[in-house]
Amino acid sequence: MVEKPASQADVGGEVEAHKERKGLWSPEEDERLYTRITRHGVSTWSSVAQLAGLRRSGKSCRLRWMNYLRPDLKKEPISKREEETIISLQKSLGNRWSVIAAKMPGRTDNEIKNYWNSRIRKRQNASPAGGKGDSGCAKQQGDLPAADDKASVLAGPRAKEPVSSMASGATAPPVPARFPLFACQLLGCGGGAAAIAAAGTTESTTTHENNRAGSESDASVGNGSGGGGDGREGHYYYCAVDGDIDMIHLMSFDDLLEYPASDLLMDAWDRNGLYSTNTGNSVD
DNA sequence: AATGGGCCCAACCGCGACTTT
DNA sequence: TAAAGTCGCGGTTGGGCCCAT
């Protein structure tokens, strides 16, 4: 993907040494950017470009990191379940790709936007009946309105909201220590998984896959699945994602309790780190 | 084997919001 | 308070790949 003609890849070339480069990134540029960010973090993106010795705009560096180099990105294709999430969230949030991406750990807004534009929208246009023709889960999606609605509520009416800022690298707010850590999964393919965890700490156990760069000094680096406040006083949520849960909904404990117990699979950890599975809706 | 069209994805562009001075 | 700098978002584009002809 990053291959390019040699004429465009002369990172250190003398010709046009001061001219900003555009186009595809070479492996060497990727290496420089990755090394720079993982070792020193990000102060400003324009300085990253400079200090990494790249003739790229800060904007371009940011885009490359966010969409390709970030260690917490998923490399595998978007799954059926994730596709359903995209459809569901797009329906409730519109084309707020960054907000949608913030609810899908490891996925970027660009990736989701591309996926939507190239596949889902096209398919929906092809089927006049509202674009649900191909999904055997359409009914279940309709039967689980809460997931969408809650996502919508938590996203809030404003353009700026905390989930989005987490995806952009903001620091997670402290999570109240009194809550046990748990993750739950809504039954039914339409609803997909709902995973949520409130932890005694904001670290390690709740992050998705890895958070290598996130351990660096700058908060903008590789924040994993993140977490944050839900915008309502006194409520915090935190995401927990494991290999089987490839998408999440964020909700408060109160929101979660609105689901009937039969709709929930609960994997739970207590605050001592003890794990049990399918414990029903007893989140307390 | 050549080629034309469609698809997919990485990256750019323009703009608004936010932050800093 | 205003201006400049920076960031982040959504829309769009360009090019490579794949497949049918």
From TrEMBL:
Region (Disordered): 1-24, 123-152, 203-227
GO MF annotations, alphabetized: transcription cis-regulatory region binding
Keywords: DNA-binding, Nucleus, Repeat, Transcription, Transcription regulation
Major place of residence: nucleus
A Pfam family this chain is assigned to: Myb_DNA-binding
Any single Gene Ontology cellular-component annotation: nucleus
TM stretches of this protein: none
InterPro entries: Homeodomain-like_sf (IPR009057), Myb_dom (IPR017930), Plant_SW-associated_TFs (IPR051953), SANT/Myb (IPR001005)
Limits of the HTH myb-type domain: 17-73, 74-124
UniProt cross-references to PROSITE patterns, sorted A to Z: HTH_MYB (PS51294), MYB_LIKE (PS50090)
Domain Myb-like residues, every copy: 17-69, 70-120
A biological process term (GO) from this entry: regulation of DNA-templated transcription
Protein name: Uncharacterized protein
Native source organism of the sequence: Triticum aestivum
Gene name for this UniProt entry: LOC123064915
